[in-house]
Amino acid sequence: MEIELKLVRKNLIVRLKGELDHHTASCFREEVEREFEKEIAQNLVLNLGELTFMDSSGLGVILGRYRRITEKGGKVVVTNMQPQVERLYSLSGLQKIIPHYRREEEALRNL
Amino acid sequence: MEIELKLVRKNLIVRLKGELDHHTASCFREEVEREFEKEIAQNLVLNLGELTFMDSSGLGVILGRYRRITEKGGKVVVTNMQPQVERLYSLSGLQKIIPHYRREEEALRNL
Amino acid sequence: MVQNFLKLEIPSKSENESLARIVISAFAAQLDPTIEEISDLKIAVSEAVTNAIIHAYDSEEGIIYIHAFLEENKLTLEVIDHGMGIEDLEQARQPLFTTKPELERSGMGFTIMESFMDKVEVESFPGQGTTVRMVKEINKNKKVQSKEG
Amino acid sequence: MVQNFLKLEIPSKSENESLARIVISAFAAQLDPTIEEISDLKIAVSEAVTNAIIHAYDSEEGIIYIHAFLEENKLTLEVIDHGMGIEDLEQARQPLFTTKPELERSGMGFTIMESFMDKVEVESFPGQGTTVRMVKEINKNKKVQSKEG
Ligand SMILES: Nc1ncnc2c1ncn2[C@@H]1O[C@H](COP(=O)(O)OP(=O)(O)O)[C@@H](O)[C@H]1O
Ligand SMILES: Nc1ncnc2c1ncn2[C@@H]1O[C@H](COP(=O)(O)OP(=O)(O)O)[C@@H](O)[C@H]1O
To answer: Can you give D58-95 as a three-state secondary structure string?
Structure first.
């Protein structure tokens, strides 16, 4: 999996490319934790547009970030979801707590 | 594997796409035999440009066509070989008996 | 009639999660499945293999056995471990239930297997191991179409 | 250090030739090989598996075992059958030698395995079966570069 990070004001944009499973989840977790420890970013925008696979380990690590970030008053949103990932997202009930936008710009406008 | 056939005068052009191994060799053999049974085509131009894999079963089936076609006075040539297939081709000694051209047009001019 | 099988044995390393997905996709490809069907199979095998790695062997190294059988258009998948087993199967299969929240597990593994496969059976013997057997009919829709057409 | 293995068991069907190639490519991918190295491994496993299908089991159905081991950057591949075995190993390994010219075999299988892998060992017991063991060092060139750099 490849991870691209970008800071736009207080929003950390994280673009995931490849497969998010138990093996790659820890890498994603560490990268995001490291950024938030700097205490610049407040919100997380997760762009899943180039994610080709995700399973329940991906749900778990996204939910984990949601808990840590909302604890400190931040927000988490997801963008550019592909159909396969979207099926998982609605099945899991994650869609009820983490808003989903079509594009990053749309997400940024709503933060 | 996909096989595309095209008749240009007395020359049967066969374009192979995908993987030529023992499993797909019989399909290639049958298609070519069927065409030559019509006794219209005399020569075989084998375009390997979109072949992503070939092993010794591919060499065997090409050599088999070479034998049948040259027996009846026809010619066999190969075009558009990719580097990986070319390594196999030179290792096998097939290059000494079956000429190789960069493109179909070049092959057709030399038949 | 398509009839085929494979038996795969791999150590319980997280690198092998993607390997298991590739093997099952390649095996199922012989039935010419849809992209969605391939995706369902990948996620189901990924869940079962990940569970064996994390829960059965508790992140220590053990062996995972993956068996796949094709019969006509029915694909059966078995993921077998000789790990710690599951005490309460009914509880384990409940959505959101997990014994490892500290590892950020979502507790959705079994629920996902059940929604993306046609049938999921779990056999488990505490202290001995677990077998997850899943069945999926491939090309269900195509078959109906060709009957109608 | 990378350490991993897989054991795969498949019936001797020609559909499984491409499956074997995909499995070995996916397994070797953990070492981040070059495209050429992947291509070498695919052709070597394809030759050995095809031989088991055609020669060992004489196109009847038998079982083929494929074992792969990774240790650091060394990949060992074993293709094992319980088929008819080889009487004269030296002759069998000669370029262009084949016992099945009627099936348009080129007799280049062993020669190809030898040129695309670093080492090829064949053990065979007539009436009992054959084991082809092949070794290839992956990223040979990359390693040298990083030492120099
Ligand atoms: N192969 C297994 N061996 C032992 N326990 C298992 C196995 N698979 C699942 N479990 C148990 O069932 C629970 C629920 O599994 P699952 O629904 O996949 O969620 P999660 O993996 O997120 O915990 C796990 O937390 C674990 O206690
Ligand atoms: N697994 C095997 N079992 C029995 N015989 C084999 C096996 N592999 C190879 N052979 C014998 O060795 C010969 C040479 O093999 P090879 O170089 O691969 O060429 P080819 O497959 O084209 O015949 C075969 O023709 C066959 O007689």
So the answer is: CCCCCEEEEEEEEECCEEEEEEEECCCCCCCHHHHCCC
List, for residues C80-115, the tens digit of each pLDDT value: 999 999 999 999 999 999 999 999 999 999 999 999
Nearest CB among C53, C107, C112 relative to A55 is that of: C112
Residue D109 sits in a domain whose CATH number is: 3.30.565.10
ipTM value for the complex = 0.94
Contacts of C30 (CB under 8 A, 6+ apart): C2, C4, C70, D15, D19
The finding on whether D80 has its CB within 6 A of some atom of ligand 2 is no
Q: In this structure, are residues C109 and C63 in contact, taking their beta carbons and an 8 Å threshold? A: no
Q: How many structural domains are present in chain D?
A: 1
pLDDT in tens, D56-84: 999 889 999 999 999 999 999 999 999 99
**Under a CB-based contact definition with an 8 Å cutoff, are residues D70 and B18 in contact?**
no
Counting one residue from chain B and one from chain D, the pairs whose CB atoms sit within 8 A come to: 61
Which residue's CA is the nearest one to ligand 2's atom 24? D98
Count of domains for chain B: 1
Q: Is the CB of D109 under 6 A from ligand 2?
A: yes
B-contacting chains (≥3 CB pairs under 8 Å): D
CA distance D1 to chain B (A): 30
Nearest to B25 by CA among C31, D100, C1, D22: D100
**Option in A23, A55, A60 nearest C43 (CB):** A55
Q: Is the pTM of this model over 0.90?
A: yes
CATH number at residue A68: 3.30.750.24
Pick the atom of ligand 1 nearest to C106's CA. 22
Give the strand pairing for D63-71 and D74-81. antiparallel
- Identify residue C109 by its one-letter amino acid code: G
Domain that holds residue B86: 2-109
